[in-house]
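Any chance you could type out a protein's amino acid sequence plus the matching C-alpha cells because I've never seen that pairing?

——
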Amino acid sequence: MKQFFKISIGSLQVILLIIEAVIVSRCIFLFASASWKDLYVQNWSKRVLRSFGISIKLVNPDNLSIKGGFSLVSNHVSWIDIQVIESIVHCRFISTSEVFAWPVIGQMAEAAGSLFIDLNNPRTGTKKIVDQMTPLLKAGETICFFPEATSTDGSQILPFKSNLFQSSILSNTPVIPVAIRYLDNNNEFSSAPGFFGDMTLLECMKNIFVNAPLTAQVIVLPAAPFFSNKKELSEYCFNQINNSLSLHRLID
C-alpha cells in the first residue's frame, strides 16, 4: 500500500509537470526570450528530479568553470540523465530523432535548443550535427552528448563512438568528461534508472519511483587535453570516465 501511494503521488506530480510543460512550450515559449526559456527548462528539470525522488551529488563542480564554449561528454544510463545534467548546467543536448518524437520530452528538448540526429541515415545525420555543433561551440555554447550512443543499466560503460568529438577539434574548444552513476538510499550502486533493452519509458519511470529516493552522483572531470584526432580524444574521455566510476566504486 505504501508503495502504491508512493508511485501515485510521484506520478501525479509528473503529470502536472507535463501539463505545465505543454502549456508553456506551446504558448509562452512563442513570446519568451531565449534566456527565460533556458532558465525555465533548467528549473523544470530540477522539479522533475524532485518528483522522481532523485537528488544530486555533484563532485568537482569547479571543473565546469570554463569561459567560452565547451562540450560535456557523459556515460549514458537513462533518459533522466538529461534532467540531471540540465539541473547543474544549462546546455544543448545531442539526441536522436526518436526522442524528438516523444510527447512533451521531445518538445522540451527542442525548446532547450537540442539537436537531433536522424537515425534513419546515421552517417549523413552525424555529419550534419557536427556541422551544426562547430559554430555553436565557437559562439560560446555548451553542448552535451552521450558517446555510447545508447543507454545501459549503469554497471559498465560501452565503447565511445568518436564522430561527434570532431566538432570540438574543428572549433578548438574544450571537452569535459562527466561520469554519472545512481545510488540508492544506502549509498550503493542502483540500476533502477537504467533505460535499456526492450524496456519502455513507463517501465523505467516505475522502476525509479519504486526505488526512490535515489542520488545521481555526477563527477565532473578536468577538461581533456587538446587532440587533433577524434578517436584519440574519444578514447581519452572514455578512459577518464571509466576510471572515475571504478575508483568511486572502490572508495564507497
Observations:
- The CA atoms of residues 62 and 220 lie 8 Å apart.
- The longest strand covers residues 175-183.
- The first helix runs from residue 2 to 26.
- The chain has a mean pLDDT of 88.
